[in-house]
Amino acid sequence: MKATLNYTELWKHCKVLKLTENMRLNSEKSMQTVTKIKEFFNWILHIGDGDMNLNKLGQATIEILEDILILHIQQPFCNWLNLFIQATCKILPLMNFLTMVQ
Q1: How far apart are CA 70 and CA 21, in angstroms?
Q2: Could you give the count of Cα atoms lying within 13 Å of 72 in the half-sphere of its Cβ?
């Protein structure tokens, strides 16, 4: 842990920035979609920030939103892999663009 940036001499020269606005919400036209995205991001933030009801052992039960559950699938790994490949194919052009910008 002492090897992290926070413990180096560089840390005193760093400025911590925080994201305050969800830019994805600005691009959405449908109010229903905006509401769903807000709910999802708030849910993720609560998990990441540890704002869950912890028991005495420091554990929490996290309720997974029904619309992101994958139910009744014959081959769950294959379906997950297909989703991963589709997402990767969408990201690759962006990664290529970022490489060209450097």
Answers
A1: 29
A2: 1
